[in-house]
Design a protein that fits this description.
alpha/beta, about 10% strand, about 240 residues, 11 helices
């Protein structure tokens, strides 16, 4: 029986942190943010990450729209360094920064260690495995960056939260993917780096999971252990051979 593998994209296959860092670095220079905010890049970047994580949590919870997230992650960061987030000039600048980030980010090609090797290994076994991407990321960024990095060709299905109408970890996201592929949960395996978003969501939907835990984080207190845990993608074939 063919196995259906549902891969998260960012930080599982695509090196989100490395690619984003390079994009932010370029943006910091392109908009001369050192002069505007009177800080160095690392200080600006550290503040941005905290604000961005907070806003993404609100977006996943349904309390913030995509459009506001795209702008506020920059306007709020600028405000943290003394600028007025409501100033029309700052709003316009934040819009430009958002457009720059999306465009330049999709040009980055870095993948997680062993990601391409794993996808190549699976590609020659296409009679055994059907590959899908499951992501909460914005459609205008996710598909282009997969094409740019050359990994789109490996996948049979692309499941984006914007298209489905629900975001991971909502089990309805996973149910929609199962329905589209016409398979049962036990025919699938979810592979992702985020315990709360990927692993816990798959658990509720009854889908076995592989937690890609490259930094050896503990299972969150009071939570169930994943079906499998790996710290390098090269370990996934060994798991698949046992199923």
């Amino acid at each position: 029986m063919k196995k259906y593998l549902l891969f998260d994209l960012d930080r599982t296959l695509w090196d989100f942190d490395g690619n984003a860092y390079r994009t932010y670095r370029s943006m910091f220079d392109a908009f001369d943010l050192r002069s505007l905010c009177h800080v160095d890049f690392d200080t600006f970047h550290d503040k941005y990450k905290v604000i961005n994580d907070m806003l993404w949590e609100a977006y996943r919870n349904g309390t913030l729209t995509k459009e506001l997230l795209a702008i506020r992650r920059f306007s709020y960061t600028l405000a943290a360094f003394g600028l007025n987030a409501e100033d029309p000039e700052i709003v316009r600048l934040s819009n430009k920064m958002s457009d720059y980030y999306v465009h330049q980010g999709t040009l980055q090609t870095g993948l997680m260690p062993e990601a391409r090797e794993l996808l190549d290994w699976l590609a020659v076994r296409s009679d055994q495995y059907c590959l899908s991407v499951i992501t909460n990321g914005f459609s205008e960024a996710q598909l282009p960056k997969m094409r740019t990095s050359g990994i789109d060709k490996y996948f049979d299905y692309f499941f984006l939260s914007e298209d489905i109408g629900y975001m991971k970890p909502d089990p309805r996201f996973f149910y929609a993917a199962l329905a589209k592929m016409k398979v049962q949960p036990n025919q699938c395996l979810v592979i992702g780096d985020d315990y709360k978003v990927d692993i816990a969501g798959a658990m509720v939907a009854g889908i076995p999971q592989v937690w890609y835990n490259d930094s050896n984080r503990p299972v969150p207190e009071g939570c169930q252990k994943p079906t499998f845990t790996i710290n390098n993608l090269s370990q996934l074939p060994h798991i698949l051979k046992t199923l």
